[in-house]
Task: inverse folding
């Protein structure tokens, strides 16, 4: 299983990567705090799961997830956010 974590807070990326590696030692876990790298990384490694921050510096995570799903509609997107107002938007 290949997992990508995208959040503009490096500490969140590292914490989530470490926890996922502990829970799933055979999984490939990559992460980035640069939203510009997300599509590049996804193009090199079609990930099964992407943990995506909804609001990143200069990038909307929902729109970025739509681009990922255009490339591979079977990708599972799990949104992460500190903003409860965005929770309903992620279901559409």
Result:
């Amino acid at each position: 299983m290949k997992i990508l974590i995208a959040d503009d807070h490096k500490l969140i990326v590292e914490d989530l990567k470490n926890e996922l590696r502990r829970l799933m030692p055979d999984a490939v876990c990559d992460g980035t705090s640069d939203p510009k790298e997300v599509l590049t990384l996804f193009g090199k490694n079609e990930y099964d799961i992407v943990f995506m921050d909804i609001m990143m510096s200069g990038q909307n995570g929902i729109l970025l997830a739509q681009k990922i799903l255009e490339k591979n509609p079977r990708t599972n997107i799990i949104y992460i956010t500190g903003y409860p107002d965005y929770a309903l938007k992620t279901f559409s």
